[in-house]
Amino acid sequence: MTALTLSTAGAATLRADALVVGVAKAAGPKGGLVVAPGAEAVDKAFGGKLAAVLETLGARGAEGEVTKAVSPSGLKAPFVLAVGLGTAPGADEAYAAEVLRTAAGNAARALHGVKKAAFALPIEAAEDIEAIGEGALLGAYAFTAYQDRGPDAKEPLAEVALLGAKPRDKAHKAAVERSLALTEEMNRARDLINTPPNDLTPEAFAAVVSAAGKEHGLKVQVLDEKALEKGGFGGILGVGVGSENPPRLVKITYTHAKNAKHLALVGKGITYDSGGISLKPAGHNETMKCDMSGAAAVFAAVVAAARLGVEVNVTGWLALAENMPSGSATRPGDVLRMYSGKTVEVLNTDAEGRLVLADALWKASEEKPDAIVDVATLTGAMVVALGDHTFGIMANDDAFRTAIHEIAEESGEQSWPMPLPANLRKTMDSPTADLANMGVRMGGGLVAGVFLKEFVGEGITWAHLDIAGPAYNDGAPHGYTPKGGTGSSVRTLLRLAERTASGDLG
After folding, report:
1. How many whole angstroms separate alpha carbon 5 and alpha carbon 413?
2. Per the annotation, does 291 bind a ligand?
3. Is 474 labelled a binding residue?
4. What is the Cβ-side half-sphere exposure of residue 235, based on CA atoms within 13 angstroms?
5. Is 370 within any annotated ligand binding site?
6. Which residues have a Cβ under 8 Å from the Cβ of 148 and sit 6 or more positions away?
7. From CA 479, how far away is CA 104, in angstroms rounded?
8. Residue limits of the Cytosol aminopeptidase domain (predicted)?
9. What is the pLDDT of residue 483?
């Protein structure tokens, strides 16, 4: 786990194994490389020629660029790592938080094998400290639990010292505390997503939540297969019945001492999705351990809110199941009686996420929260629509959908508002049951949202986040995003809890 501290030492005098500075492309037609604020002492050590030295080494200041230079005698750190910040802002402007977050992530990834690095990036406010801290701690992440690490293996950056901040300033200290709580829980979510499904069964996932509950004083309730059957949770049971690893419904509750508003979060937790009897083809099932990313995000957000003492009551519902084919598995054409009492004809067993979410949404609705947000890697159609980096937002309240979109952008997560066309409901009509779990093929992500809306309690504000695109990075790492599980939507959910506590959402 990477440590994060604020240091009052100067960039030239602090003992560290590396010194991180920012460089940018000068605005205007002439361009050229400029050293970003925060690195003045470093530039002085280079005789005012740091930009020239870096340009000689090929630096252009582009975002994502990393350039290494040997330090002169005036610096304690043996080398300087310059990260590109893009085009320099105007005189009355500052670097955007996401630019700083991404740059810090690029630096941290490049510094694997280094013990301590000092970050001398631009800091004008506590928000900058938070962004740099988040980027560095997320960029330093590595999942190595299943690797034989030899003595020469490069371990993640062990310590990050932020320069230019004020360790005794309350806002600056709070920024560090928030960065630590958020990133530690995001990285725990990443660990869960990356854990092989033979180890992360529904029961094992529930055990992790129970342990975290004890650690942070949260109430955890786990419904096993017997309790689910007794309670009539036909959706969760219908998905999990084909597996030797039975399903679970986990409730994790954070209650603030003050009489606060109540936010309910619901996460899809399919610990492995083979598609069931509607089996996924080869090439589409190798990464399906990530189909519990929604539940991991909800879990992380609840624990982070508790660690930070956010003045809001947050309940997380994790609908956990393994979707497998077998002689006992649900078949296409079977009808399930859901926890709400509605019946659903299963036309495709690979549309299973909406079935477990439906039961959890109805259960969450019984507590009459002020709002419910569900999170799921729900549809490939959303990936087709929005790509790999953007999640879709649907809601039964336009203002709430807009608010979540703005919160996501503020948190550094790409999202886009999507509609819930009423005409799609008819395409899920079934001659046998109250509705089917499939509708028309085109607009499949919207169809799934319309299905979920059927299981939200009357008068409750609700939103659905389809994170199928950004939840798992199957490509090369970039910025603070690793290969594998990303922790998508955790930042948005935590910021939503904070905004709810402050009364910004009504």
Report:
1. 25
2. yes
3. no
4. 31
5. no
6. none
7. 8
8. 348-355
9. 98
Q: Which two tokens stand for residue 306?
A: 């508790």
Catalytic residue positions? 280, 354
DSSP labels, 129-173: HHHHHHHHHHHT----TTS---TT--PPP-EEEEESS-TT-HHHH
Among the residues of 36-140, which ranges form H helices?
40-45, 50-56, 97-110, 126-139
Task: Report the run of H or E that residue 192 belongs to, with start and end.
Answer: helix 170-194
Q: What whole-number distance in Å separates Cα of residue 291 and Cα of residue 280?
A: 13
CB 274 within 8 A of CB 291: no
The alpha carbon dihedral of 36, 177, 204, 449 has a sign of negative
pLDDT, one tens digit per residue, over 227-266 is: 999 999 999 999 999 999 999 999 999 999 887 899 999 9
Compute the C-alpha angle 215/221/226, nearest 5°. 140
- Pairing mode, strands 313-323 and 248-254: antiparallel
- Per-residue pLDDT band for 454 (boundaries 50, 70, 90) equals very high
Rounded-to-integer distance, Cα 490 and Cα 295, Å: 10
The reply to whether 350 sits in an annotated binding site is yes
In angstroms, the Cα distances linking 112 to 9, 30, 109, 133, 154 are: 23, 35, 6, 16, 6
The reply, when asked if residue 352 is annotated as ligand binding, is: yes
**Length of the chain counted residue by residue:** 506
Look at residue 506 in the predicted model and tell me its pLDDT: 62
Query: From the centroid of its chain, how far is CA 289?
Result: 16
Residues 188, 196: Cα–Cα separation, whole Å:
14
* pTM of the predicted protein model: 0.97
If you search the block for the tokens 């990075």, which residue do you land on? 473
Q: Report the 10 Å Cβ neighbour count for 282.
A: 7
